[in-house]
Amino acid sequence: MSLSITDNNIAVPPALAGQREQAIYPSLSGKRVVITGGATGIGVGLVSAFARQGAQVFFLDIAADEGAALAASLQTPAVKVAPRFLPCDLTDLDALQACFTQIEALAGGVDVLINNAANDDRHQISDVSAAYWDQRMAVNLRHQFFCAQAVATGMRARGQGVILNLGSISWHLALPDLTLYMTAKAAIEGLTRGLARDLGSAGIRVNTIVPGAVRTPRQMRLWHNPQEEARILAGQCLPERIEPEDIAAMALFLASDSGARCSGRDYFVDAGWYGA
Ligand SMILES: NC(=O)c1ccc[n+]([C@@H]2O[C@H](COP(=O)([O-])OP(=O)(O)OC[C@H]3O[C@@H](n4cnc5c(N)ncnc54)[C@H](O)[C@@H]3O)[C@@H](O)[C@H]2O)c1
User: Fold this and answer.
1) Which of 200, 207, 241, 268 maximizes the CB count within 10 A of its CB?
2) How far from the centroid of its chain's Cα atoms is residue 219's Cα?
3) 181 is catalytic
4) pLDDT band at 21 (very low <50, low <70, confident <90, very high)
């Protein structure tokens, strides 16, 4: 029987409770995996899932308390290599680079990068200043490129690597009050294709994972009230909420050798959400 987080008494947020069993990918054991924005939400699902595969996980996040708590909760005999939390504001490119230098010194390289950090604050078009535009692109787009740049040299030298960028269903649906976030998320699919083309000859695979409406603590706190949940479920083909573990399941497959011929594409995990 494969182990689940709850089987091992690891404290997990409500979003992960009752998680389904996931496949074990032997090719992920021992892989050095960097996950941005790993401290909360989908990031918790990603960090936990890769740790359970026996990967050596480093996760970067600005949320210091949550990151430290998650790392502590995964220090358990069931997790072969305890994930390491590195506090980092990814909008600070010097701090970002310093983290990758530290990871290089600790682990000797990165096999899998998951660009997950983002912030989906709402805004009105009339309120957007040049500074706010720059800040939104810095938190939702820019670091994805610079994290990829930081790992690309080593991946090229080893002739292999996987980069997964988190996009969003939002711009595919044209959701309201999210223009800058959706601009960044649309760009991420272009970023994925550019990186996949330029790095593919070196054996590096790059893909976008496009989540639908995922039941994370932030979404539940801010936006997913019962009325909104009903609207989401009515718009999806599958009338079930999406959990962080569902996004992690796609990430595990794409990062593993089972995804060896997948690159330059966008993989939706949205329960077939066509209607807003
Ligand atoms: N939850 C959803 O329904 C949903 C839907 C579509 C796409 N996504 C995408 O999935 C990814 C994860 O989303 P989530 O819902 O877990 O988000 P979340 O807001 O719950 O978590 C994002 C994490 O990123 C971190 N972060 C934010 N700014 C940072 C910074 N400057 N430096 C370092 N870390 C920073 C946060 O602290 C947080 O831990 C994002 O790319 C998001 O756009 C989520």
Assistant:
1) 207
2) 15
3) yes
4) confident
